[in-house]
Structures are given as structure tokens and as C-alpha cells.
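Weekly puzzle thread! Below is a chain. First person to post its structure in C-alpha cell form gets bragging rights.
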Amino acid sequence: MPSPTSDSQDIDIQFRGVTKRFEDVVAVDDVSLTVERGAFFSFLGPSGCGKTTSLRLIAGFDQPSEGEVFIGGNSVVGIPSHKRPVNMVFQQYALFPHMDVAANIGYGLRQRNPKPGKAEITKRVDETLEMVRLGGFGKRKVWELSGGQQQRVALARALINHPTCLLLDEPLAALDRKLRREMQIELQTLQRDVGITFILVTHDQEEALSMSDTICIMRDGKIIQSGSPRELYDEPVNKYVADFVGKTNFFSGEVVDSNGTSVSVKSVSGQVLVGLQPKSAAALANKSKASIAVRPEMISISAADEPNQNSNVAIQGQVMNRIFLGEHSEYLIATEGYGDVLVLSPKVIESHSKSFAPGDQVSISWTPEAALVLGDT
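Winning reply:
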């Protein structure tokens, strides 16, 4: 059955009203989405939000209770996983320990009917090894490889069949931080080189932000917001998204004035704070509960007797903790009426001014443009 969208030739994956139930549990709840051809798309969310089930619905490991899933414009409801034009890379790479690298990569080709000739399989395996920068590793045993190399073998095995879409189920979770960062860059480069759609499932916001063209944030089986990494970071639709994507300070209060763009919120401390309302967020009515959200890197810190004159708010506080992280310092500031406030001070700024130590009295400030006013739901 063809997809009902007129531009289906530009879409690789589409959900239309998809729901998946496991007895009384609704894992995916009336989800509709599209993934454009050649995109790097990520499902992001906490455990139990529905992201892995969504990936399994694309792969064919699960079938929807309601709605339809399309791949390349064709409905795949009822079609088993081995007949779908997708391949999957799991968190545990599931490599065959009794086979060498070349045999692992060529496994899918040998299962085809008709099976390609031996020379063709060898050629394809060698080409795919070069693609993932493992040329010359074909005769190695998989247990002789590092974690990053094993991950590349798993990617090569999935890519050798030229799938329409590559599905990645937290493939970097088993790697250490440095290697994970290196593999994030390699995955981006590989995706651009092969030009096919990558769909990633992760609970790691940094991973999703660093690699994706589009991120779909899920909660309780529903899509809360989809957009580019920058849109989700700079224009979250509510407090949940702002809290999940990056670090954020929240100051709760009640809306006292709004002109559709700028919103004034009377905080619990009694001070009126002003911020911008994200364009994609629902309008906030007067007297409704809201939160002022300010990213730590948007807050200036200075000595208590030197408040920032370019801000409409200056809050006095005491440094409780300072963590030096190389490119920036992270301060935890205790304030009266606002609680603990996180501040990130770039090294380039601290190199031209004094840093602060626990116990120092400081002033923190930000501009109205640095603050977002978000609904709590």
C-alpha cells in the first residue's frame, strides 16, 4: 500500500497514528512522524518512554496494535523483519566469535537467495572494510579487536546489504567516554559518506545533540517535541524538554504580564523576572504557573560589589562549589529566594578576570534575552 503523502519519495520512514500495546501497557501512544531520506534521526528519552519500541516497529521485531508504518512509501505492517529493507546495530554487537572479521561482515550476503558468488562477496566485504576504516582486518578474530573496532565491524555487517535505513539501538553505550566521542564523529562521517538514513535510539542527550539532524523527544509513549538540536536547545516547548536537553536553571512563579513574546513572571522570591516565550510553545495566560529557564552558560558571575550593569536582574549569592573542567569552570551558587544556581564560566573569560572559590560572595545576572518562560506541562 503506498504512503498517502504526496512527497513520499523524499521520506524513508513514516508513522501514521501508531500505537503499540503490551497487554495493559501502552508503549507507543498514537505517534505520527516522518523521517526524511538521508537524515540522521534520533529518538531521545528516558527508559520506558517508547523510543526502543518505536525502533523495533521499524525493524519489524514488533507490529503496531494500531496505525501504519511505512518504509520507502510502502506499508510494512505484517511484514517480518528479514523482509524489510533495514538493518540494525545493537548495543551488544552480537558478532559471531567463531568467525573472523570478514566472515562476520559477509554473513548477510551468504544468507541471500540467490547467494552472490564467492568473488563478489569477497569484493563487497573488502569495500565495506575500507568504508569503516578496517582495511586489512578481514582475517582478524573479533575477540582480538578493541571495542571501537568491534563496533565498526557491526556497522559494516549492517551496511553491506545496502539497506534503505540503518537502525542504531544505543550502539555506543558500551564504550568509554573518549572512544564514544570518537565514534560519534565517525558515525556522522559514515552517514554522510553512505548517504542513507540513520535512526538512533539513545538516552544520552549529548550523543543525540552531537550527531542528529532531527531529534524526537519522547515521554510516556508520546512525542513531546521534534526538531533540530538547536531548536530543542534554544526553543524547548516546555519545562520537560528544557530539563532533558542540556543543563538548565528553573525559577518557578506566576505569569503577571505577557505581550505574546516577552513574559513577566513573579517568582516565589517576589521579584518579577522577564523572559522570552518560545515561538513553538503554547501561549501562557496571566496567573498561570510558569518557570523562568536560564542556561548556566548564559549567566554572568562577578564579585558581589561589581554587579553586571547590562542586565535587568542581579542576584546575590555565595559560591558553594567550583569544578574546573578545562574549557570552563562550573560554579554552584547558593542564593536566597532562588535556591542553588548553576553557572558555567568559560576559560576565556576567567583568563581575563578572577575566578572564585567556595565561600566567596558573588553577584549573578543575565539579560531578558537569555531567559525563556516555559509552562510546567
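Puzzle host: Confirmed. Bonus trivia for everyone else. The radius of gyration is 25 Å.
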